[in-house]
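Structure in, sequence out. Go:
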């Protein structure tokens, strides 16, 4: 080989080393990027799992609150039904008393009319006696 060919070969070899060195640097950079991408994927996965766990805790809290509200509503419904049952018993007792009083009222009205009739008869008797006395048809002696 000639000197010029040797020189060209050395230059090509040197260029090749520079290219390989540059490729190694590029490869190292690409591996660094790959590590960063893998780390970001891990962070995103952890973040996603954390969000999922937070969301599940929120759902559990909502479920617990809904169940507590349902229980309170059921308890209130039972209390209201029991109270309404007590009120029904009281209303039935009042109705029974009203029915009894209604009969008592009818009896009292009848007795009242009888008393009014007797008083009216007594009043007419007294007024008739006074009128007859004043006309002179009846003579009443007072004292002796």
């Amino acid at each position: 080989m000639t000197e010029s060919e040797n020189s060209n070969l050395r230059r090509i070899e040197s260029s090749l080393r520079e290219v390989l060195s540059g490729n190694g640097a590029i490869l190292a950079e690409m591996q660094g990027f790959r590590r960063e991408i893998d780390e970001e994927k891990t962070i995103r996965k952890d973040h996603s799992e954390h969000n999922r766990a937070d969301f599940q805790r929120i759902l559990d809290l909502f479920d617990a609150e809904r169940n507590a509200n349902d229980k309170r509503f059921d308890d209130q419904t039972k209390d209201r039904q029991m109270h309404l049952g007590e009120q029904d018993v009281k209303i039935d007792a009042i109705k029974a008393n009203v029915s009894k009083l209604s009969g008592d009222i009818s009896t009292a009205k009848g007795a009242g009319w009888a008393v009014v009739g007797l008083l009216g008869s007594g009043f007419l008797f007294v007024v008739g006696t006074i009128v007859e006395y004043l006309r002179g048809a009846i003579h009443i002696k007072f004292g002796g």
